[in-house]
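In this supplementary section we document a worked example of the pipeline. Step one takes a protein sequence of length 295 as its only input; no multiple sequence alignment statistics are reported here. Step two produces a three-dimensional model, which step three serialises into structure tokens for compact storage. The input and output of this example are shown verbatim.
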Amino acid sequence: MAKLTTIEGCLTAIVTPFKGGKVDFDGLAKLVDWQIEQGVDGIVAVGTTGESATLDVPEHVAVIAACVKAAKGRVPVVAGAGGNATSEALELTKASEDAGADALLHVTPYYNRPSQEGLFRHFEAIAKSTKLPIILYNVPTRTACDLLTETVVRLADFDNIIGIKDATGNLVRGSELVAKVGDRLTILSGDDGTTFPLYACGARGVISVVSNVAPRAMSDMWDAVKAGDWARAKQRHFELRVLNQMLFFEPSPAPTKAALSILGRCSTDVRLPLVSATPALVEQLRAELHVQGML
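The serialised model returned by step three reads:
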């Protein structure tokens, strides 16, 4: 695959399937293949939805390599390589390169709540350590720190920082990013529910959870926007609204794995401290998948 200068469209933040407590690599390969067949524009490996927090480093790297192998160059594979210590993020960056990733997703360092200058220097160190394209990832509800727009503007000066996944859920913030750096960075929605509104503001893609379960519909939303068919994109937004909400009724990705299990695509297994979706939610998901015409 040629060197990437931009990534856009629907990228699936793919789950990491487990079987008997271990990574189910056969199941992962089948999921990647299905996603690509259904039209997604990229695969994001070992992000939050991929349960990166409960994978050890060898598993983390092996999942990236498995996604690269399964994708076979058909779409880019973006590797989750973040850490709350810069040294750890640098090690995962190198390991992701060696595993064949096409690009990197780097989350803001969690728990230790760095200042904006600390965030800038963290991402500066990463950008200078690699030639791979980097997508910044801002998700304050999980990390307890917020990458402010002013800092993103500074980081946009690095040639290999090409985008930002905005998971603030704040449309004002998303609009601000498009206005200030949209000509230099690809703004990607990090919340499925804000995807269509952010497209209307000028975002050019999504790193999606719901596309794990409904890849064709979520991809079609972007395809419609790209074709200027806003009515079709809006229709997809509302068709997916209930399913998207259900996938976060309980801690993610347990509901997503439950939905995929109903579809026969992976087990419901998650690793502690997460637990599998409750029977009540499983039945709600089953009913919604019938509504979606997937059963």
